[in-house]
User: Fold these one by one.
Assistant:
Number 1:
Amino acid sequence: MDAVSLIPTPDAIPVHWFWLHLLLTFTTFLHFVAMNIMLGAGFIAFTAPFWRGNDVMPLNSHIARTLPYSIALTINLGVAPLLFLQVLYGQFLYTSSILMAVYWLSIVGLLIISYYAAYVYRLMDDRSGLGRLYIGTTVLLLLGVSLLFSNNVSIMQMPEVWLKYFSDRTGWLLNFSDPALIPRYLHFIASAVAIGGLAIALYFEIRKRRGATDGEEWIKLGCKWFTVATIINFGFGFWFLGALPETAYNSATLGGKVFFILVVGSVATIIPSVAYAQTARIFPAAAWALVTVLLMTLARDILRLTYLKPYFNLSDLPYVAQYSPFIVFLLAFIGASYLVVWMLKTVWNAKEVSQ
Amino acid sequence: MNYPVWQLEFLGGGFLIAVIAIIHVYIAQFAVGGGLFLVLTEHLARRRNDPGILDFVRRHTKFFLLLTMVAGALTGVGIWFTISLLNPSATSVLIHTFVFAWGTEWTFFVIEIVSLFIYYYTFDKLSTRHHLIIGWIYFGAAWMSLFVINGIIDFMLTPGAWVENNNFWSGFFNPTFWPALFFRTFFSIIIAGLFGFMTASFLKDKELRTTMLRYSAKWLLVPFLLFLGASWWYRAALPPHIDVIIFQKMPQLRNAITLFLVCSPLLILGGLIMAIRMPTGLSRTMATVMLVIGFIYFGAFEFLREGGRRPYIIYDYMYSNAILKKDMDLVAESGVLNQAKWIKHRRVSALNVQAAGRELFNVLCLSCHSIGGPLNDIRQQVRRSSPAELNLIFATMGNERPYMPPFAGNEFEKRVLINFLNKRMRK
């Protein structure tokens, strides 16, 4: 039995795959930004008291206040890429999810617990003692969820490991045999911590510009986290690159060339970001960091295509055109963006800055 | 046939999805009706200039936020995860057919999240006018989410002309779309009243508590008549064969029908009792009981709706075991073991006959039957029937037993499967 014979037959897509992929990449990028802020800021709130003791206020108070928002947004912004991923790669994603079904379904429970723990952390006064238990629960569970997501991606991209199903059909499979799994996971986590640090700096920078006077120390702290985590992440990144199959960066193929350019581009854009953070110019630092996240998102897309190339090409997907629902979606998207911007602007104009 | 089967035994037979779906839909419908409850109650508080009612709205919003935003949203993701594990083929059809309906629903979900956070955190920061507008935006987005999801859910029960033309709009505005939309809208308002009882019963001020309990009772009682009208319309819109399956042919649905019929007067009676002035402890207990009755009521309805689809997962198109109706002849000719992708024992011998039987059971039966579980336990059903009766069940699947798909494999596979059931499930 070979893995190719196991790949399910995909259903037809209603618009050209390019549009679906564009939406997948765009919404994945938004999800990654929100996820990095959520996980990174949570991680910093959890670990900061270990060496700063009780000297974590008002940083942890602000993180506690904003964490439920970032969790809600991360989950919400995760729904859309998961949708478009299913449309384009459902035959791979459903299969990998079934192979690790118990773990996959446990994500729902883990997220509910971590979300409620974040709310308890927000609503309670104690940010050092018992509070640490709650933020710790949130962060550790989210780290666990990330590992499960990495596992699913790994199984999805490697149909050759699907044969393991015949020795365990009860949904308890993971793919630790993939040499790229752990470095990929650590690369994501370190990037989240870096972006989380930068988000903290940006948050206090915005408050400073609106008249708050308590932010200088936390802007520096955020930049420090960003810089250190980014430097560490170079190590994880090289480990990850080394663990990838050669085809991923083979310069003889178009995919390999594009992947190489995107990785070099990511390095080239993160360097000015770190440099700006060192001089406390937070806005340009954040702008360059966003470009890096976008390039990494694109690199990830290319990597997925490379992994699946022996088995599948997007142009193989059956296509039966029905564009009218797509137009309705675009109109809803534009309308929703307008309403969200209007609501945020209304609040922004009304909000007082607490000192 | 196309995907691997998750060998879920005790929690199979629809139990897992039933639990997650009923919890989610109850909370999700609260997220719709509750949104209207919030904004209209705030209007009332502002009009009367009553800080007590406004404070109640604020507390109720906190409860609403914590319940709908966390448990509601995540059990929604949970349903998605669960159906893709239990029936990936049907999920794939739903996702591919309605990708932009799901996408549109997601845009409403974004509006819901942003507006609800703003609504809760800006009672004292925004002007009354702006705060009320945000409340209306929330409700509008929540109802539009219901509008979109309603089209997809009812498509599964009554896909209508879609089966022939595969057109998105035929599937979305299917024969039960409008009655189901009204049915769910009125029910969501009723649920808002039930949850209103819960938070109102915790108010310390006796006068305010009584006022808000009576106010919540109106939310339960006034839409109830409209709800009953929509229920009648919904039933009338069902194709006759589905009506027969639900109300006559499926013994498993009788309990759900009874529960639905018993809970209707209970809810009305409970609503009237809640309007009477009661001590705090009693009103809290009553509020909890009412919430549970509402849950059972709605659970019974969802159970009926799901059951009514049998033997299909997408009516008239795909059977519960994910075999397409149009493929039945092909599968019968070449055999399940040859047609299904994720099969290890394609050739049956004396050495692997039980293993092959198990694979047939996984592909053909596991989507509806648990093994030793609380729903559709295959062990119980096999033990209840003699070997001859078991043969008769296989002979009558799809005709005298219209809630079961016809046996999809060939005669040899039928014998292998019956042998497996007799040997392994009769113990």
Note: Chain A has a mean pLDDT of 94.
Number 2:
Amino acid sequence: MISNIGNLAIWEWFKLRRRWMLWILLVFALLFAQLAVWGAFFSYNGVKETGGELTVPAALQQQQGRIPRTVRCNDLLSGDAARQPADLDSQVVAGLTAQCRQQEAALPARLARGYSNFTLPGSIPNALGTVQTLGLILMAILTASAIGIDYGAGTLRSVLTQGTGRWPYLTAKLLTLAILTLLGLLVAVGSVAVSSTIAAGLAGAAPAAVGTAATWSDAGTALFKAWISIIPYIALTAFVTVVARSSAAGMAIGLGYYFFEQLIVALLSNLFTWFQNVADFLLVRNISAWTGAGGGFPGGAPLPEATQAIVVLAVYTLLLGGIAFWLFERRDVQGATGGG
Amino acid sequence: MDTLDYVIETTALTKRYGDVVAVNELTLKVPRGGVFGFLGPNGSGKTTTMGMLLGLVHATSGQARIFGDSAFHPATLRRVGAMVETPTFYPYLSGRANLRYFQAIGRRGSPADIDRLLRLVDLGKRADSKFATYSLGMKQRLGVALALLGDPELVFLDEPTNGLDPAGVVEVRELIRELGTGGRTVVLSSHLLAETELVCDNVAVLSRGKLIAQGTIKELLREHDALRLRTTDDAAARTLLGTLPWVEGVDQQDGTLLVAAPQARAWEVARALADRQIYLNELVPVHRTLEEFFMEITGTDPNTGREKS
């Protein structure tokens, strides 16, 4: 049985790797990983160059009605009259300078944190934070497509008449998707490692270490957590695709649910205090809680504990996956339903 | 025949979809070897029965066995090849890649067989084109190739000549005939009865989910042989012949009487009529084709091809 599932998983990969969709989704994941690294790099350089920037609202500017502008703390603190903003009232400048002095104390820690976000190993948890969120969406698309095509093209009939067995076939599909998720994350991590090395070279000397820097163990934990967090979402999409026998339904629910849940939690938690207890058992909130990501729409309540989150995620995976398997095993197989 | 001589056995096999009975207590035995015709008008339950035999459709009640085992057993299915309804393949894979995939997941034969099968169904030149670009006939031929992967002992072919040009139909017919030799069994479902008559040894006829006839084509057609008569008094002859125990029916057709009776009893018909002073002007044995037989027993309207309600 294990050998049958292993064989089916290998050949699932044979099918998936011939689809453009897989590679397009991977490119998206890599782009977002790069965005996280280079975003952190440019942000660090900005802080290093400017010493931090403050926004001056239009109301504080001498010429009313202008758009808000920024001033650099390095200019304000330089004592050089030529670098002081000439278009601002002296009192406003004094206030901004005082604010910059306050920030100056925290600047080394901020720079160290910023540097860590685009250099190894800290760049890995930083990038995975972005890639994991996107990964939920990408894997929802891939899962719905990989399972839904057998309904859309009617190939489930051809597959099952080969004597593969129903549950081994679905197991192999889900196993392949879970492995591909991990491989996708590893490829993203690899690309992050390369770009982090380049970015570190471009950034020059590291700032003096302040506080606790990220370790390789943190990077490994972030990778593991990102991978595990996507699996319940694969189960959700597989469940919807099997129930509806449609990749379109799987994609729609997979994509929509992520935002819908956060919107509902933000709205109802503010309206009804009891809803907070319900929200603590919802899928996306527990995914955010497990990965330690802030997540959620503004107004959302604090996230549950990570221990509770992993239990809730395991229950979701087993429940949604279990129903999908039961239906897959029980239902009659029809011809093509159209779509992919 | 011993049980092992039957590759397919169904016992009171029934499939209901709500109030609709698609297959009604079907008890069927398909002998090993040769080409078995599975006939019936559209909606008669052929494809649903095939689905139950192939483990695609769950029976409401009754049993379906292939090689004496449950039709849902994967090991049983590995000995079976099938093309049910329209062939279904992955549109973004080539014909060759599709066959390679199905060969690998079913562990049927070796990859080297794929080229042989592609040549056999005349798809060698388009083997590397995507399935989505194939014509209906090409898709059908790839479906036949899929059914033959791993040299199965039992092959289900559901309307294999759909979409083929006349030359393709002849090729597939020859192929089916060849497949039915050497101990392999081919279950052929087709609405082209003339084709079926040319290749099948045995047939089963379904109508409204029920088995209404089964046997060798020769036996079935013999059972339904007829005599065409013109007499000096057709009305009296019709009344008289209707009373004979071995006459199954007498119809008036185009100014003649069509008597459903074995042709070997033609002389008895002549004598019975002569005994009542009714004399024959003409007596012609009528050999029915499978198509005529099918139309008659299923009550199919020859003009529409549908069962008369």
Note: Residues 2-40+119-330 of chain A form one domain.
Number 3:
Amino acid sequence: MVRTATVTGKLKQIRIFPQRLLLPETAEKLLNEIDSVKGVVRMLISGKNLPRKISCGPGTGKDVNHPDRIIIHVSGCAFELHVIVGEVLVEVDDESVVEELRKACERALPFPFELKRGYFIKTKATLTDYGKYGFKSKYDETINLEDERILGMVDPHAKLETDLCLIKPEEMSLSRTAEEPIQ
Amino acid sequence: MAYKPQYYPGNTSVAKNRRKHMSGDVEKLRDISDEDLTAILGHRAPGADYPSTHPPLAEMGEPDCPVREVVEPTPGAAAGDRMRYVQFSDSMYNAPSVPYWRSYHAAINYKGVDPGTLSGRQVNEMRERDLEAFSKDVCSSEMTDWGLSGMRGCTVHGHSLRLQEDGTMFDMLDRRRLEGGVMVMDKDQVGVPIDRKVNLGKPMSESEAAKRTTFYRVDNVSFRSDKEVVEHVQKVWELRTKYGFVPKA
């Protein structure tokens, strides 16, 4: 049985790298456009942290209140941006989706962007993941996750509840589910 | 004939700007009031007295020293002010100043300053009232474009990042931002909110920034396009390398 999310199938990963760091409105538009493309399995957004509080210096502990740290809606799912979006990693079913993805980005982004194919999201459980999730049982030493696509979507030290967003949990299946994590 | 310092070689706009920064012959672009500047520096409340670390030099009774007689103390040192700092971060996307050139500017043109140069930020330490005078010059001149530069005492991140959509450098602590076409700052340099919104003026347009920058960039003025600079840098490196072997001849 195949237990890893992507390495064995024909799934492709695409890295969308805009020329500028995105405002929340543009990020929301881009993510919704990507989500509307058929064949998108999961998305990962990353960028520079927007901290809630100052973590160093004489102002330590004071609120930052960054205007870009707001709640955005993607496919009817609301979540708070913790980063200024700098890149979006998208996993798609097959090569034919890539062109649709490019068109979606062109619709959403008012400036140039790079689109690269490759493997950007972790596909196999590492020691840290085993430390976090453990084995399935005493006799089954596979990682204790129902859906291994969660691997690589959030930092091993982050909490899934706050950083991972399942957009269509009612349709969740191993073959077609869109997930929207925030790092 | 009076000696005229040459400062830096080259004929490109970047080389000329570097010479301008080093000579201190920079254009004033905006006005920032003393109170606003004191507020964003964050070392003392605007209007408050300068705290001191020692009595004024005139009252201290200095020892008999020929050097002290020759070197006139700066106003801050004479008054016994505290040592304070100001730190700047400049975007590599054509910000007007490079950390090295901020340091050259400070060391050549000001007394009693300790400039610290790092890859993406530059810090200056000096007596408090000297610091305010220095900061005012730097902040109101063409050396600082508030869209592409920032006064950042901590969390300086932004120098090597892509610009934000609005064309300004990312600021994790949101100290200054673009509002209604002008840059405003409502926190001091370490991110502590202040009681006012300081208007820092319009950010430079892309073409203006490209014209005033001291950054060599392939998409603007490339380093290799300035043969005189390349020759000078190669000469310095050659001499440094030879000196490393301590040639006897």
Note: Chain B has a mean pLDDT of 94.
